[in-house]
Specification:
Elements (H helix, E strand, L loop, with lengths): L1 E12 L3 H26 L8 H12 L21 H39 L27 E2 L5 E7 L4 E8 L9 E2 L3 E5 L2 E12 L5 H4 L6 E7 L6 E7 L4 E7 L2 H22 L10 H28 L4 E5 L11 H27 L4 E5 L16 E3 L14 E3 L6 E3 H18 L26 H4 L7 H5 L33
Parallel strand pairs: 8-11, 11-12
Antiparallel strand pairs: 1-4, 1-7, 2-3, 3-4, 5-7, 6-7, 8-9, 9-10, 13-14, 14-15
Helix pairs in contact: 1-3, 2-3, 5-6, 5-7, 6-7
Length: about 500
């Protein structure tokens, strides 16, 4: 079985004085976490235990009970009457931070010892300049609410036990935004501060049958994969669903990339003009904060909408694999500030779409995401793999125009949309990569032919030396017509017409 965890974020509606209560609760939680971090630093051997044993040992060191009336480092000196599960939540948070810190410290010490040993061996005295990790100077963790710290949760409200600064009180809070899905395992909610508002984050765990690996899935001829070609203009994404045997089932064109790019470039141009008018940028202060926030929000929204549309399309056509290009070395072209900034943020949005589609596809039921080499995916024909001619409507069909909408293959006379052809090549490249034969080392002969001495005067042909007889030309070429280097004769079927594909999620710029 496989698991998928996601977080449901819900906005809260509460009286104004509740914000101070939430802040007091978070401050107390971080004080308790810092206290237990210091306890772990004083007793470093606790990290050798598992989390359950370490939690028990820490409670014996700090918690006052009838059987343990005088603990070594009492927690009551910090705050009285702390609930048990509030204390355990702080212990778990402190254990996680301590394990991370001491792991980094161990790595740094190993690097230092290796450097000093290397310098001693060479007879040099070059000091080690790597900085050691330091413990957290400030704590800003969000307080989780374990089982006894919340109750009466329904669709639109929840009761939370909160430290108000003077006492522990139960507060009823109204929740907004999306509802919790039914049938999934719910974790402990958290109060998270974003700016001046407080949100409730709830982890949700979904269990489903673990999917097979990509290579295993592609052994079936009817296995379906959804290949995605991401672009900077025209359409943000073009998706094509095809089977392993080459049958093309459906294609979807998502988003209006030209409108998205134009909106972003317009905002960047306004920022550039504002900067040119003032001529001064204040230190440690964000200029044009509203415009930068709008750019970030537009890119974030489009990335979420496009990734959701991709996963919806793959789920609708029962695809089990999502295929993207591995775009890691993109660099913006030279130009004005708004042009370079626009291209750079368009590249960033491609990465966001891939990251969001990866986890959304996994949550949709175990759809696996893979990436392939993007080299020449837009220049090769999806039928014969020859080089295509790319052009715009009304232009001569010659050469290759980057970003043009149409393409034609001079070898097989294939005519198609250039982005659709690229998405099909992306999917075929994954199939070619996983179905390529493994290159094994040839087995050595058990007995080698003996060499005749030069003085014997007897010449032996190569065929006579072979143990299995002379080689035949037919054996070198292979017995099958469809061997390596031979073109396949199977034809690909086209899917449904593009206008018939329904769009389930509307994007603002379409």
């Amino acid at each position: 079985m496989a698991k998928a965890t996601k977080t449901i974020r819900q906005a809260l509606h509460y009286p104004p004085q509740y914000a101070a209560y939430f802040a007091s609760n978070q401050i107390l939680f971080n004080r308790v976490v810092a206290f237990y971090f210091e306890v772990i630093q004083a007793h470093e051997g606790l990290l050798a235990l598992n989390n359950k044993e370490a939690l028990t040992a820490l409670e014996k060191l700090t918690h006052t009970t009838e059987s343990n009336p005088h603990p070594i480092m009492p927690l009551t000196d910090l705050a009285p009457d702390i609930p048990a599960l509030f204390r355990r939540a702080a212990i778990n948070a402190a254990l996680g931070s301590a394990r991370s810190f001491f792991s980094s410290l161990k790595t740094w010490r190993a690097r230092k010892e290796k450097h000093e040993a290397k310098q001693t061996k060479k007879g040099k005295s070059r000091p080690f300049r790597g900085r050691p990790p330091v413990p957290p100077r400030s704590w800003k963790k969000s307080a989780p609410f374990y089982a006894s710290l919340w109750r009466e949760r329904c669709t639109r409200s929840i009761m939370l036990k909160v430290w108000t600064g003077s006492c522990w009180s139960w507060l009823k809070i109204h929740t907004l935004s999306r509802d919790l899905p039914d049938g999934d395992l719910m974790g402990s909610p958290q109060l998270v501060r974003k700016g001046d508002r407080w949100w409730l984050h709830t982890p949700i765990e979904k269990t489903f049958e673990a999917p097979a690996k990509v290579r295993e899935q592609l052994t079936a001829a009817q296995a379906r994969l959804c290949a995605v070609d991401l672009n900077l203009d025209h359409h943000v994404a073009v998706c094509s669903v095809q089977t392993v045997d080459g049958t093309i089932l459906a294609t979807s064109f998502i988003g209006n990339g030209t409108a998205v790019s134009g909106c972003r470039k317009k905002l960047l141009g306004r920022i550039a003009r504002n900067r040119s008018q003032t001529g001064i940028i204040a230190e440690n202060e964000q200029d044009n904060a509203d415009l930068w926030a709008k750019i970030r929000h537009v890119d974030e929204q489009i990335a979420h909408l496009v990734s959701s549309r991709i996963v919806q399309f793959a789920t609708k056509h029962e695809a089990s694999i999502l295929v993207f290009e591995h775009l890691g070395n993109l660099r913006p072209e030279q130009g004005t500030y708004s042009r370079r900034g626009n291209t750079k943020r368009a590249y960033w949005m491609k990465g966001r779409i891939f990251r969001y589609a990866t986890y959304k596809a996994w949550h949709a039921g175990g759809i696996i995401t893979a990436r392939v080499n993007p080299r020449n995916t837009s220049r090769e024909c999806h039928r014969c793999h020859g080089l295509v001619v790319r052009y715009n409507q009304g232009q001569p069909q010659e050469g290759y125009t980057p970003g043009a909408a149409l393409c034609i293959c001079p070898q097989c006379q294939m005519r198609d949309h250039a982005d659709r052809n690229a998405s099909l090549r992306v999917g075929q490249r994954l199939i070619e990569r996983t179905q390529a034969p493994l290159k094994e080392k040839p087995h050595a002969l058990t007995r080698r032919a003996k060499r005749e001495p030069k003085g014997s005067g007897v010449g032996i042909s190569q065929d006579a030396k072979r143990q299995w007889g002379p080689s035949l030309p037919a054996a070198r070429r292979g017995d099958h017509a469809n061997g390596h280097g031979t073109a396949q004769r199977g034809r690909r079927r086209m899917g449904a017409p593009l206008p018939d594909i329904a769009s389930q999620l509307r994007i603002h710029f379409e």
